[in-house]
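Box 4.2: Ligand-aware structure prediction
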Amino acid sequence: MDALPWYEDLSPGRGTLPPRAWYAGSDAAAFSLNGSWGFRLSPTADAEYESFAAPDFDASGWSAITVPGHWVLQGKEKEYGGPAYTNVQYPFPVDPPRVPTENPTGDHLRRFDLPDGWPADGRAVLRFDGVESCARVWLNGTELGDFKGSRLAHEFAVGHLLKARDNVLALRVHQWSSGSYLEDQDQWWLPGVFRDVTLLHRPAGSPGDFFTHASYDHTTGTGTLRVDCDVPGRVTVPELGLDLATGEAVTVPVEPWSAEAPRLYEGVLTAGGERIPLRIGFRTVAVEDGVMKVNGRRILFRGVNRHEFHPEHGRSLDLATMREDVQLMKRHNINAVRTSHYPPHPAFLDLCDTYGLWVIDEGDLETHGFQDLGWRGNPVDDERWTPALLDRAARLVERDKNHPSVVVWSLGNECGTGAGLTAMARWIRDRDPSRLVHYEGDRSCADTDLYSRMYPTHAEVDEIGRRADEGPEARRRLPFVLCEYAHAMGNGPGGLSEYQRLFETYERCQGGFVWEWIDHGLVHPVHGHGYGGDFGEEVHDGNFVCDGLLFPDRTPSPGLVEYKKVIEPVRITPGPANSVRVANGHDVVDLAHLAFTWSFLADGETLATGPLDVPPLASGASTRVTLPTAPAHPADAETLWTVRALLAHDTAWAPAGHEVAWGQIPASAPAPAPRKATGARPVRSAGRITLGPAVFDARTGEPLAVGPLPVTGLRLDVWRAPTDNDEGAPWQPDDRHGPLWRELGLHRMRHRLDEVVLEDDSLTVRTRVAPAARDFALRTTYRWTSDGTALRLSVEVVPEGEWRVPLPRLGVRLGLPAALDRAVWYGAGPGEAYPDTRAAARLGRWEAAVDALRTPYLRPQENGSRVDTRWLELTSGSEGVRVEGDPAFAFTARRWTTEQLDAAAHDTDLVAGDTLWLHLDHAQHGIGSQSCGPGVLPEYRLDAAAATFALTFTPVAR
Ligand code: GAL
């Protein structure tokens, strides 16, 4: 067989300059080649000759494409093919390093004149910040070389080829290359020149590279700065009065850099005729006694995994979007990012330095698709690939090494094990011993400084926290992080609070990174946002690509709101005798940046508010603060305090007044249960029974109206449209509840009417609720009473037979007129909550449009439940119904049935009907995280058991 073409050989490329520290370049010295480029797509790598690279080539017949951008997301109606989503599997036959003949190939052309005033010294480099999956490059007809490594920067020396006018830059990009085998990350396959293309002027003798070493000694409060550079130069830091030679070290008093106090010092490196801006953050990363410390303090990652994603532009993000990500993270108490699973656009790391986020910077490397093949042929275990792996390691470290936010290097993700990884780790350690090395896939931890896992159960984390885990002794001495946990797919994740408790209990458990930051739903002409399979892919992994804390349009999901509360860096909890306990959980800063307030609530209504004096506690300290005397309030009201910690001043990421943390402290016992509503006599006539405000069908005992409102289909309700976490991942054990529920028929329960009994003061309906083909059931009795004004329903449920699965939910559902469009309630809100996702729900009086109660998960599923509801009013204008619970209940109101919700594949499939379906739940099963991780914790299971609950309905007329 002939030698392989360049895009299939194992080499990382030819003709590129050695990797070096990235910086933007001054305006005068950097010329962006972003914009409209000529574009031609061919179906195979060799369908067209390379003659297009010749300067006189006539490209007038070509179309235009925007750079940066992915071609599959441009053009009209799939003109340029489409995106494809796979998780683990390669979307082509696995025969490394060969790729399929069908190899979409994008030829790109850009003509440009040099800007006026561009130095004529013939010194310049051309930089590509990201091209998927490889590129061969020509300038003015001369071939510069080629490269692989999609999310890595590559540069070529081009000064000698540049002309003042009419330069022609030509690029041939193949979707598939040998590099694709190293880039099997769980995401869309999106070819193209998706990051910036820049021409940089580099004067003769300018540095090849520079490395800022800025450590901090917490025992003396001093920082030591040394900037290494391959050409001699000077370093100035005016704020510190520093002017020193490159290679020289100086120690001075400084403020350290941390994610909480991201103190940066501006400096300049002048070397070889270039002035290079420096942004210096002093900090020292170390492992001491099995604990990761920065500047002498243990840090706790409250992290997320971030893929670069935009619903229209894929992985091509503009600065505003990157900034939005960082600001949203900071506003949600997130302090760390793992750049899963490749180095991000360098500007993102600048933002992390500026705003303050700890970063695990990950190499562009994943070979997960070999797992299904028993790891046969895995590139990380085949030395022929080692140069390509080392190239990736070097391009990661060299590009990003001057960012103080980067505290950990990660070799890559899900590659199994092999000598190639060891070689990468060795190279990184040698080049930069100032940071830790991470890789999750090797349980021996031979090459890593952290023990890292994804999706372990709480029990396992507990064991690891106690250093009681099995495995190599050396590993037990390492700090522990969850590089991924809490799979945020659809509704959920559940169980976050319990993980956080473990992180706050065990010194060794240094937090984790929720999987993942944003849903990768791509804008779709029919479905709103599409996921795997929606773009005609041959193989795909469905909606597994939608597992983020943000919706694709960056609206926070309830999961993010929950995470914010769970990881809040200040804990506000009840203290003894009218007091509150405040604990500062920050890693570094005191509480001086926060202002505390109290408010006093009676039956959910705020009666008074005021400031609360909290001393500026040091990190790790806690205190008791006395609350004021309770304001006057009705004697029988349920009362409580809400104490909030707000930003005292504007910050770069949120204005003053932004809420960082809160807690509620009960002041009195909960309000007494609603009145029993008994006494009225049911009256039977003409096939109807009238009881207080309600009318029933005398034969079935079903309510037909409450006051003026027609009611339909009131019955026991156990079904919910399974969440992604109910469904579980295919590789999970077979106790996944979604599939079991369906198998057992919980989605099609039959309601047998056994008896309708009319007594003096009540109407009783006895039923047996059970699925076809099964012999287990729920004996269900509805007992209706009234005091003439209110109608009380008490439901008694007694399980019969052997229930092998928990119930999805237990409550009643009923249909009401669609006109009811407003909800006002007193309960936990304002957002949705489930038994194990309810940390962020606080007691109060809330109000929302009915349509705003739902959460539009990309794949429709159970959503929108409001828990701990004392009472709810659903109204339209002046009419409506009030529901009170005994005990409190959870409610969900939506314009389609559970069955319709369950049947929908996309949010756009859901069409409002003429009934408002109201679910009044006594309980729901927890959510868990089984779409990838562990299921529902035992305490949140809703096992079938005898239960009674009551609901009181009162017509509302104002
Ligand atoms: C992990 C993987 C991630 C993602 C996640 C599930 O195994 O590292 O890339 O696939 O599972 O969404």
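In the box above, the bound molecule is beta-D-galactopyranose. The chain has a mean pLDDT of 96.
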